[in-house]
Amino acid sequence: MITASDVCKRYPEGREALRNVSFEITTGEMVFLTGHSGAGKSTLFRLLAAIERPTSGSIVINGQNLASLRRNAIPFLRRKLGLIFQDRKLLFDRNVLDNVLLPLAIVGHPAKDARRRAQAALARVGLPGRERTFPIALSGGEQQRLAIARAVVNRPAIILADEPTANLDSASAGDIFEIFRAFQQVGVTVLIATHDPLLLPNMRARVLLLERGDLSESEQRPVPDTSAP
Amino acid sequence: MIGWLAQHQAALRDAVRRMTAAPLNSLLSLLVIGVALTLPTAGWLTLDNLRQLAGDAPGVQQISIFLTVEAGKREFNDIDSRLREARAGNWRFVPREEALKRLQAAEGMAEIIGSLPRNPLPDAFIVTPTDVRPEALEQLARNFSTWPKVAHVQLDSAWVKRLDALLRLGKLVIMLLGALFAGAMVTITFNTIRLQILAQAAEIEVAKLIGATDSYIQRPLHYFGMLQGALGGLVAALLASAGFHLLTPGVAELARLYGSSFALQGPSATDVVVLTVIGGVLGWLGARISVLIHLQRVI
Do the beta carbons of residue B67 and residue B79 sit within 8 Å? Predict the structure, then answer.
């Protein structure tokens, strides 16, 4: 589903953000990308979202090589991805419902069904009945839920989240990760970039560790069995 | 196809929403565009009215063919058939008796005419040519003068040439003025769209990041420019109509004093449509240029 091979990213000023990064994420897998600030997580997120292009190497998502993707094909790739940004990128002059409706409007989804789908997405992230509220009136955790609802309303096969729990307390962060796990359980591939290692031991997921642009570790972390009596 | 139409509908709705969101700004922009388009429009219409006035004026763009005094019925028929063959336009025959009566009717002429031993006036044909270009009129007059029993051909070519030169100069001035104001209108729309892009930079960025194509982003801005331009064209038509409406009674009175039935013509329905379309196209152009330049900086 996602294959990165020898991906390098060097910026014009000479800074090397990623060095020969290679990994593979299979369909329905949940993967954490972790590392300290400046390790290259956001750069990798931007490459996966086709916001930037790698200097060398290749990234293949659903059979499409992003390095050679034509500029006018990028929007169509992004429609298949559920992107969640570190700064959420919500539209504060539009209410909750209109924020979630935006991706559907972009693909030209029929208005009536779009509304139904947006409401379903909001219900799924725990924001039912908040359609008319403006984002400014939501808490940080609720704003993040709204960003997730907007990302999943087009039913993407892949969710890419960059620091989705930044500035959230541990309870809210836990709730957000639970939402992601719920999506993974229905077959959605989830890649979460986070600098917060404290949250990782509680999740069943593979972890990719980035250090100063090098992917130095890849391991499977267990999760406590919560189903036991 | 339905999806494509729906996206265009949504873009148009978005453009209307943006316009109504700041009604005072929109109104002022429309007025500025309206005034910018009104000036060349009014000039063009004035020129059109002048052309019509000149065409209606007696003696202008007409050629008089005076026959010799001894010309009779046979010569009349000959000239009449030659005019028909030459497809010279419309003509009418003025017999010498009718010409004398008209002259007698003129103030102070009755006594002079009465003292004459016989009618000195010849028969004449008054030709109103279809092609009124000065060179065509002169060619026609030269042709008439070669016909048998034609004593004199009268064309006030100097007056026709002066009028034509004046109208051509006026047309050029109006076209230059039009180009200047069209440029101003494109600039106004360019700037309006630039401000829109700056104000909505966040929304544009988010839309791009979640899969909006360039067309999706640009479409409402194009519609906005086109709508603003078209409405500006309508405002110009309204202003020109109002101006001509106010001037009509005064001009009609003046024309009546000169014995003319001339009436000032304001913009016709076709003119209104043309103005709206020109406004829309110029608005779209301003938006298009602005989008091409400024959208790259946002995304």
Answer: yes
